[in-house]
């Protein structure tokens, strides 16, 4: 056991020792915090600050989510053509204007404004993954993407909590701090200017290959697996909240969520250090099967324990899919590919929320977990068939 732990530490130490990787993780983590806080900040501002209720808050949150999903590939294409810094200037200005106006707008005006802000959301997640795919040697990419997945896990645990504190402590003016965080994040990413193309190639130096030449087969499987994994995670989270609320144990969700995230971090650590980890399709299937016992419900301590196997495969499944996208994307279209990966994340969450909500209200929380697990398993089977066929064709 000690040897295995020492070997994994050495693996990650080697990755962090690569030129520019440690600053990339630190700056990337900081830049992701305002992005992860956006949803809860807008929800609390509209529902509580403006006293418009959660239905209106949902419209605003849905608008910015839709904007991010639609805009991520476009922003990625701009990075491919013009480089990172000009795009960050554009996105930073857009966020400064939007968040500066948030306290001045009513809920109705916030919907189109949020959609526009989402279209020009800073590519904090995509840039890190694009840089990893472009600059990390093939032998180190698995632990590099595993570290990225673990960093994302922590960002989603910390960002919403900080956003909640800001809005509650500074009602009305809290969004201005979020806007300031966005501006600082874009400045930091621009200062770091991580490489987004292999070999130091300049943006627009070569024409980007047509999308139809690479957006197929294994790439579609990786994007579909990403969306399915997020669908599973979102449905599980909503179901756990509903189960705890029904038992008047909602306060225990913070502990359950912490254990869930910790299990994901451990799973991601093991995946990144493994010599021969399972393929994406297997990890996705294990994520579905590991989450299925959550449907059994029970007291808070039971749910907390059931979330351990559910969490163990979160980071591995997401890291494997992200690594595949980065590996398969052409260098001249990697921005578009990572943008599509970000869109897949948004699509998974967007589909999961209403699906799980309807099943929780009309059937039971267990039905939401079961439906999400069934969809995720179906995607895993399709992924296994497609990647298996592709591997067999190469062998022949």
Automatic annotation (TrEMBL):
Coiled-coil blocks: none
Keywords linked to the UniProt accession: Membrane, Transmembrane, Transmembrane helix
Record has S-adenosyl-L-methionine as a keyword: no
Transmembrane intervals: 22-48, 54-75, 87-105, 111-128, 149-170, 176-192, 213-232, 252-274, 281-301, 307-326, 338-360, 366-386
Superkingdom, taxonomy of origin: Bacteria
Listed Gene3D superfamilies: MFS general substrate transporter like domains
Pfam families: MFS_1
SUPFAM superfamilies in the cross-refs: MFS general substrate transporter (SSF103473)
InterPro entries: MFS (IPR011701), MFS_trans_sf (IPR036259)
Thylakoid recorded as keyword: no
Entry protein name: MFS transporter
């Amino acid at each position: 056991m000690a040897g295995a732990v020492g070997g994994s530490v050495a693996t990650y130490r080697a990755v962090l020792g690569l030129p520019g990787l440690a600053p990339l993780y630190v700056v990337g983590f900081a830049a992701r915090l305002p992005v992860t806080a956006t949803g809860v900040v807008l929800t609390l501002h509209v529902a509580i600050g403006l006293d418009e209720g959660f239905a209106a808050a949902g419209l605003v949150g849905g608008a910015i989510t839709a904007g991010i999903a639609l805009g991520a590939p476009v922003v990625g294409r701009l990075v491919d053509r013009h480089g990172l810094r000009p795009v960050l200037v554009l996105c930073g200005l857009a966020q400064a204007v939007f968040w500066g106006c948030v306290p001045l707008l009513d809920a109705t005006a916030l919907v189109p404004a949020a959609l526009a802000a989402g279209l020009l959301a800073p590519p904090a997640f995509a840039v890190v993954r694009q840089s990893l795919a472009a600059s990390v040697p093939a032998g180190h990419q698995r632990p590099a993407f595993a570290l990225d997945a673990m960093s994302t896990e922590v960002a989603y645990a910390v960002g919403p909590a900080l956003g909640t504190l800001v809005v509650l402590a500074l009602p009305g003016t809290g969004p201005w701090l979020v806007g300031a965080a966005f501006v600082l994040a874009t400045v930091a990413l621009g200062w770091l200017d991580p490489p987004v193309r292999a070999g130091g190639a300049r943006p627009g130096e070569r024409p980007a290959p047509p999308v139809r030449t690479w957006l197929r087969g294994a790439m579609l499987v990786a994007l579909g697996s990403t969306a399915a994994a997020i669908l599973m995670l979102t449905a599980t989270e909503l179901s756990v909240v509903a189960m705890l609320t029904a038992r008047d144990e909602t306060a225990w969700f913070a502990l359950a969520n912490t254990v869930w995230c910790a299990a994901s971090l451990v799973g991601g650590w093991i995946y990144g250090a493994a010599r021969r980890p399972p393929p994406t399709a297997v990890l996705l299937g294990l994520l579905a099967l590991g989450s299925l016992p959550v449907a059994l419900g029970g007291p808070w301590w039971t749910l907390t324990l059931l979330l351990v196997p559910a969490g163990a495969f979160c980071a591995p499944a997401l890291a494997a899919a992200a690594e595949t996208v980065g590996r398969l994307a052409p260098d001249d279209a990697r921005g578009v590919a990572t943008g599509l990966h970000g869109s897949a994340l948004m699509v998974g969450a967007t589909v999961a929320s209403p699906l799980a909500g309807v099943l929780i209200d009309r059937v039971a929380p267990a039905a939401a977990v079961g439906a999400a697990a069934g969809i995720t398993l179906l995607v895993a089977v399709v992924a296994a068939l497609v990647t298996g066929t592709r591997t067999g064709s190469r062998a022949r």
